[in-house]
Amino acid sequence: MILRWDKKGRVRIPENLFKKYFLTFEGKEKELSLVDTGAGLLIRPETRLESKINSALYIIHGGNNIFTCALSYLVDCGSEKILIDCGTDLQFKKLCENITALGFSPGEVKRILLTHCHYDHTSGAYLFKKEFGSEIYIHGNEVEPVEKGDSEWTAAFVYSRSFPSFKVDHALEESSLKIGNIQFQIIHTPGHTPGSVCLYAEIEGSKVLFSGDLWGWYSKRWKSILEEHLKSIRKIENLEIDIWAQGHGVLKGDKIKPFLASMKRCIENGIMTFVSIPTGAEIETYNIAIKYE
Ligand SMILES: [Zn+2]
Ligand SMILES: [Zn+2]
């Protein structure tokens, strides 16, 4: 599907594509503007369910809608397999099937590191805990919403769901964490939510940044801190990044710098943020900006 935009640079996203997220979010119709990042404007709703990035890093996805279930990443740390984010409770079964399809067993996932508390990234965690005894890590600022099942802070209300609460085993803070043969740097990047983190690691010779929803989308209902967002971007902007593993898309190589620059520009202007859309077999990422009202 190719979306065309008018002379003012605006486009209406077809309702069937983003209905819940944007067009009817909080009862208001949203108008979306496309930002030209040089990446093109081809947008397809279908996404791959699983994919190998390199021999120790895999995308796992439990559904066919990139927005209702965020991407999870399986990292093979040698002696241990971990997940970074774990999708939704509704997609748990499919997610496990996709882990198996990649040649791993979901029961091998003994730790899950969560980038922030949102439903689309975390609500499958209680099932991983129950079925496989996986230990859950999340930033200290967001232990409360997941343990209490706060459907506002976890954004579960966006999906008309209640949040399935679970106990957190380890509160993350800015530090470094060695798992198997991989050293993860935990970077606290509040903005989208108060306990958002990025994880930075070298995996099979590639420098990888896992950033959850660092791209944004603010709401008071999930306690976004706009003033902190730019500071958070500054914390990661000078990192050397070969693979940018976001919650809703993956960027590689020369796509990274332009994306980061446009993202920063938008945040500086205080009116927009990005949604990245992985498409088809190439898992390329395209950008749309949402205008805040
Ligand atoms: Zn989020
Ligand atoms: Zn998300």
Largest sheet: 7 strands, mixed
- Rg result: 18 Å
Structural class: alpha+beta
Are any ligands bound, and if so which? zinc ion
Mean pLDDT: 78
Query: In terms of quaternary structure, what is this?
Result: single chain
Strands side by side in the biggest sheet? 3-4-5-6-7-8-9
Instruction: Determine the fraction of residues in helical runs and give it as a percent range.
Output: 10-25%
Structure description:
This protein is an alpha+beta fold and 293 residues long. The chain has one domain (48-291): Ribonuclease Z/Hydroxyacylglutathione hydrolase-like (Metallo-beta-lactamase, Chain A, 4-Layer Sandwich), CATH 3.60.15. The protein has helices at 15-23, 92-101, 119-122, 125-132, 143-148, 226-236, 256-269; strands spanning 10-11, 32-33, 50-54, 57-60, 72-76, 81-84, 109-113, 135-139, 170-172, 175-179, 182-188, 197-203, 206-212, 243-246, 249-252, 272-279, 284-291. Strands 3-4-5-6-7-8-9 form a 7-stranded mixed sheet, with helices on one face. It has a 6-stranded mixed sheet with strand order 10-11-12-13-14-15. Strands 1-2-17-16 form a 4-stranded antiparallel sheet, covered by helices on one side. 47% of the residues are buried. Mean pLDDT is 78; it is low at 1-6, 8-49 and 271-293. Bound molecules: zinc ion (ZN) (2 copies). One zinc ion binds next to helix 3.
